[in-house]
Amino acid sequence: MTMISPVRMVSDSVAEVKSKVLQLAAAMDRGGMANPGVSNAYLGTKDDMRLLVESLAELDPVNKPLTPSELSGRWELVYTTVELFRASPFFQMVEAGYDDPEKSNLFFKLHQLQTGSWGASKIGRVTQTLDLIDSVPPSIEGGDATATPAAEAEAAAAGAIEGSDKAGVVEDNTDVSGGSGSLESEVDLIILPLTSVPLVGFWKLLPTFGGCIATKAKCSLAGDNNEVVQLVVESTKLKAVEDVPLLPLAGPLFEGMEFPTGEVTKKVMGNVPVTKQTVVYIDDTLRVMEDKAGELYIYARPLKSF
């Protein structure tokens, strides 16, 4: 048996490589243990994961057009080569807006230090729910019978409906030829998970709180095989997490309040950056995405829907 690397054998099947991907993801705490901000001890595992992903792409490449149904539904992040919060379209928009890796990486590092120092907070589940439909002709004549709500949403995404509030938020050059719809990202936050003090006691000094940051974005597919997923952020809101109370006062006050992230970004920056990631592997249970910097985001169908 020929060994390509410590993690991959030549004879490995797709199922065997997938098993190794999930095993490495679990061992590295969704990639968190390989974060330079935590330790340099496991940085080599990123190369191992990239090799496994390359193997999946070789064994079962994306060589035919993806359909909206293949991507639609709920997915849970199981591994990433960057910080977990960067799976949110909001932070991907920040990165695209800077268009300078040094500046965006500094921003992300500061955010990580501010929110994660001394165990102040921990990221829980990170999920995406995609709702995509096949593309429709972008031009809709007034009064035409084809002007259904779904078709209007499609045309608005392309910026084709003059005077539409939605049209101004999406970049005019966003390609929707492969299908379009929406994506909702949810990042669960657990606040004050560890507040006991050694030698003082083993009980928690402060209760644990939490919340879910939900970001909605317009989503469209492009590329020869619809493998490019394009996102334009629309809004952000706070939601409750099951069995974890919201922060007193502020939590109930802001719960469910939708913040127009896209509109505010457009006023500040002049436009809403379009973020793009490429599907490098997908099947019924696993999806691997890669951004322009080569960072990986691996999602699996959740065992339970929350």
TrEMBL record:
List localization entries: Plastid
Going by the UniProt record, its keywords in alphabetical order are:
Plastid
Q: Name one GO cellular component term.
A: plastid
Domain Plastid lipid-associated protein/fibrillin conserved: start-end pairs: 17-83
Q: What is its main location?
A: plastid
Q: Which Pfam families match?
A: PAP_fibrillin
This chain belongs to which protein, by name? Possible chaperone
| Protein source organism | Ectocarpus siliculosus
